[in-house]
């Protein structure tokens, strides 16, 4: 399959991309290169190959989901512009 200038113009219009008329030949060439690569991929025999989510088969490491306070409230509150009684203090926004 080959992409001509009219098809490249239509694709750009559908994608809502403003492409100057002088750039359409380059865009058509890029589309043709992409389609050529897809044709190469179609030639690969994948019969019997299981789909995978990554290139190395391994299980994700699991950890127990435990809620903590982080163990360092003083360090966290040290960055706050205003902290009182162990909490962030913010200006009142509702009267």
UniProtKB/TrEMBL annotation:
Give the UniProt keywords, A-Z.
ATP-binding, Ligase, Nucleotide-binding, Protein biosynthesis, Transferase
Q: Which Pfam families match?
A: GatC
Q: Which top-level group of life is the source organism from?
A: Bacteria
> Which GO-annotated molecular functions does the record name?
asparaginyl-tRNA synthase (glutamine-hydrolyzing) activity; ATP binding; glutaminyl-tRNA synthase (glutamine-hydrolyzing) activity; transferase activity
- InterPro entries reported in the protein's UniProt record: Asp/Glu-ADT_sf_sub_c, GatC
Q: Give the catalytic activity.
A: L-aspartyl-tRNA(Asn) + L-glutamine + ATP + H2O = L-asparaginyl-tRNA(Asn) + L-glutamate + ADP + phosphate + 2 H(+); L-glutamyl-tRNA(Gln) + L-glutamine + ATP + H2O = L-glutaminyl-tRNA(Gln) + L-glutamate + ADP + phosphate + H(+)
Q: Sorted alphabetically, which NCBIfam families does this protein's record hold?
A: gatC
Q: Please give the name of this protein.
A: Aspartyl/glutamyl-tRNA(Asn/Gln) amidotransferase subunit C
Q: Which organism is it from?
A: Tranquillimonas alkanivorans
Q: What is the lineage of its organism?
A: Bacteria, Pseudomonadati, Pseudomonadota, Alphaproteobacteria, Rhodobacterales
Gene transcribed to yield this protein: gatC
